[in-house]
Amino acid sequence: MDHIFACHDIIKTDFVHAEDCYQVDAAGRRYVDFESGIWCTALGHRHPRVQRAMQAQMDQVVHLGTRYPNARVEEAARAVLDVTGVTDGKCVFLSSGSEAVEFGAQMARRFSGRNRLLTFQSSYLSALGSTGAKRPDEWVLLDWADCTDDDGWACLDSIPFETLGGFVFEPGGSGSGFVQFPPKALVEALARRVQAAGGLLVVNEITTGMGRTGKWFGFQHYDVQPDIVCLGKGLGNGYPVSAVALRQTVAETIERSGFRYAQSHQNDPLGCAVAVEVIAVMREEGWVEQGTATGAYFLEGLRRLAEKHAVIKAARGRGMLLGLAFHPHERVSAQWAYTALLQRGYLTGYYPAGNLLRFDPALTMPRAEVDGLLACLDELLAEAAA
Ligand SMILES: Cc1ncc(COP(=O)(O)O)c(C=O)c1O
Q1: What does the alpha-carbon distance between residue 312 and residue 334 come to, in Å, rounded to a whole number?
Q2: How far is the CA of 355 from the centre of ligand 1 (A)?
């Protein structure tokens, strides 16, 4: 791995095969994947129906010029609009989650004619552009930990709603890092005030979409009506396709304004064929419901570990987006647990800033594997305490 640019931690593994919730390395060792790659393979790696749809599309057409979307792209747009509830809207397909969120934010600016947007300070939005940089001249960054309803949400008083183009809301527990969810009433009040003042509600469903949080979409835990919904990760189940769904008036107003945007892989039929099949499989096989039940079972198990082991501060989560926060300790930490689990054949995630061990398994993760991971972690923590 000497020639792979280390823009992120690189762990020296060599996975050569992946199937459902498992990855196998070149030496034939099998690992149970509790991270779904990087939160992408919601239906498990290489779901057979998605594989077949991809192969069939590859035999027809993979890529078309941005001027020539075909019937497959229209089919994917209808499927995304239907499942997100943006039923009479319009949709564009891009490649990554970052592109989708940046596009959604730019559409809010374009529609409202206002440059400044609101988001929670800890929300991760994108690796690119304005949503990646979150510069203070373009963003109002609200720390929801400072907000309480004891004082009637006084934190809202300082927000210049009438100057905002929109609220970019990431419902995944603040940047999908901390697995801590902002109060329902606060999110609803912010959405209401922004929209009443002429801004748009843009939801970043890159991580939280496609069943991750126990509902199809993270915003469905709140009583809000998004204007723009950005999807990625689970939509492609490991294939790089993302989507932005826009409410009809938003889409049509922007189209009429002469707006132009082109990227090489915009509306590629291959990505669209994947999205169509992923949505169909999730619906027909009931994976959102099954993942929700497995997530509740998993969270119960994590809570039992938190009660038993003093080093664990809290177990928390929604659906299949779960975390175990550790107290500061001289040896035991989330990173320590991550490494120990990796050695025992489990792929998990950790977030150093929150001292948090993370689990974002496929919705297809069998309960027996959840039991296996919980037992392994229990044993590791007991050994560490001895
Ligand atoms: C909440 C959230 N938004 C956006 C993104 C960006 O998606 P991508 O990495 O596909 O560009 C991520 C990536 O992890 C994310 O977690």
Answers
A1: 9
A2: 20
- CB of 119 within 6 A of ligand 1: the answer is no
Q: Tell me if 200 sits within 8 A of 220, measured CB to CB.
A: no
Is pLDDT at 241 greater than 70 in this prediction? yes
Give the pLDDT confidence of 22-47 residue by residue, as tens digits: 999 999 999 999 999 999 999 999 99
What domains are defined for the chain?
A: 15-33+286-385 (3.90.1150.10), 48-285 (3.40.640.10)
Q: Does the Cβ of 209 fall within 6 Å of ligand 1?
A: no
| Ligand 1 centre distance from Cα of residue 384 (Å) | 34
Contacts with 269 (C-beta within 8 Å, 6 or more apart), sequence order: 57, 60, 61, 62, 63, 64, 70, 72, 73
Tokens of 357: 């061990």
Give whole-number Cα distances, 13 to 34, 86, 164, 333, in Å.
16, 41, 46, 22
Indicate if ligand 1 lies below 6 Å from the C-beta of 98: yes
Q: How confident is the model at residue 17 (pLDDT cuts 50, 70, 90)?
A: very high
pLDDT tens digits, 169-207: 999 866 556 888 989 999 999 999 999 999 999 999 999
Is 266:293 a contact under the CB 8 Å cutoff? no
pLDDT of residue 78: 98
The confidence score (pLDDT) of residue 176 equals 53
Helix pair 367-385, 334-343: axis angle to 10 deg: 120
Helix and strand numbers (H, E) in the chain are 11, 15
Nearest ligand 1 atom to alpha carbon 232: 10
Q: Is the CB of 230 under 6 A from ligand 1?
A: no
Closest-lying ligand 1 atom to the alpha carbon of residue 172: 1
Helix extents (H) in 88-149: 97-112, 129-133
Digit-coded pLDDT (tens) for 285-332? 999 999 999 999 999 999 999 999 999 999 999 999 999 999 999 999
Q: What are phi and psi of 371, to 5 degrees?
A: -60, -40
